[in-house]
Write a structure and sequence with these properties.
The protein is mainly α and about 170 residues long. Helices cover about 70% and strands about 0% of the residues.
Length: about 170
């Protein structure tokens, strides 16, 4: 397995883990430090995506990953805020309501966000599959260019060179 394929596989596992963590939070499982929501640019995949992964920015499938990846983190943060953020209570709820009712309402709202989180995660997984396919196509075209030296595609040649330099070739 190439370095790039390993990186994409780690991204798949990581995003499935985030979804499982959100489900656990909603079920009341205690939060560990590494489960605290991160910005999309701070997770392992986000650091790669906004760092050395940018070599792939010429591929539409790479660009298409940004929104669902950002959405996944945003929704996870919303779930976290609902469950661990400061609860706003009106005067009437302070007088007549209970903390338990507020907590139950937060759990219900967080639970309602889970399908949206899963959808974003699925879009990330599908995007990673598409990116992996596109990279394979670039590699195939690279091989065919060696057979046909007259074909000239500067952006493809540049992408191939950068992939090789990063150990992805």
């Amino acid at each position: 397995m190439s370095k790039l394929n390993e990186r994409l596989q780690k991204a798949r596992v990581s995003h499935l883990t985030w979804v499982a963590r959100a489900e656990a939070l909603v079920k009341g499982v205690p939060l560990e430090k590494e489960q605290v929501p991160l910005l999309a640019t701070e997770c392992g995949f986000g650091q790669w995506y906004h760092g050395e992964g940018r070599v792939l920015r010429a591929l539409p499938s790479y660009v298409a990953l940004e929104k669902p990846h950002h959405d996944l983190h945003h929704i996870y943060m919303e779930i976290f805020k609902l469950l661990y953020g400061k609860q706003e209570r009106s005067l009437l709820s302070k007088l007549f309501g209970s903390k338990r009712a507020l907590k139950q309402e937060a759990v219900e709202k967080a639970t309602a966000l889970l399908p949206e989180l899963k959808k974003s995660s699925q879009l990330v997984l599908e995007g990673l599959d598409k990116l992996e396919f596109d990279i394979q196509q670039v590699r195939k075209r690279k091989l065919s260019q060696h057979k046909q030296p007259n074909s000239s595609d500067e952006s493809l040649a540049k992408l191939n060179k950068e992939l090789t330099e990063l150990g992805y070739g």
